[in-house]
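Sat 14:20. Reprocessing the chain from the morning session after the first attempt stalled halfway. Input below, unchanged.
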Amino acid sequence: MSTRPIDRLPPLQLLAAFEAAARHLSFTQAAAERFVTQSAMSRQIAALEGELGVALFERRHRALALTEDGQRLYSACSAALNTLRVAVRTVREPHQRQVLALTTTPGFASLWLIPRLTGFTRAHPGIDVRLDAGLGNRNLASEGFDLAIRYSPVGAQGTQLFAEAMLPVCSPRLVGELGLPLREPGDLARHTLLHLAMDGDSAGMPAEWEPWLTAWGLADLRPAARLSFSSYAEAIAAAMAGQGVALGRRPLVDALLASGQLVTPFDAGIASARAYRLIVDPAAKSRPAVKAFEQWLLAQCAAAA
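Finished this time. Tokens:
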């Protein structure tokens, strides 16, 4: 029979490993985050379960699920580790440069934010920006991010920065050199459509184009060819290179339209059902660096509008 006090804490290393595995519901992803092997992560979880005398995970076929005890421990570990992160940040900040951690989509980052970011860093030389560009929604508190700019349905969580409008865009060379008509929406059937690869793409209409084509009565349009890309910025780069017509998302492409690198072959925009929204981690909201960035970002969005 164990003589361990019932409230004695297991090693903190095991609790941190468990928090990562419970957050990802994957030993492999948790191992990558904590720079250990998958087998080492499995051993740490088994050691913690042995220490506590309970199962924390249900091992299903190619999937993990938390048990009731596991869910209870995860809630406590997540809250405790976040409290520690905030405290460590508070202790460190007066003695070193401030770091602002921001996550957003690759398209917003490359086409809209990065060209403007020099203005922020020049105005705030004591703040270093760590920018994460990815399609997944990061957990701000547990993954150490202060803010997120997300592409989400209108009315979703957060402060709306601006709504989105969609319209076809292409290189001016495509309009003038190929000799193929591109004067009205139906002419897209003679051209290559550039698009972001998405679930729901079929052999005919790309899913990204579907709302626009449907709005203009072209639900059955079949383009001459299609080129799909893993990121929106790549599709826009292909459009600038004259490889086809992309679905421009304003305001992301406004600067390219203003410079003449892209043109709209016909005025046929529609409002999007999505918008760009700012979300701030409540624990980071009072930080001077976060306040400064939020004020700067809102001013930039107002100027762009």
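The mean pLDDT is 89.
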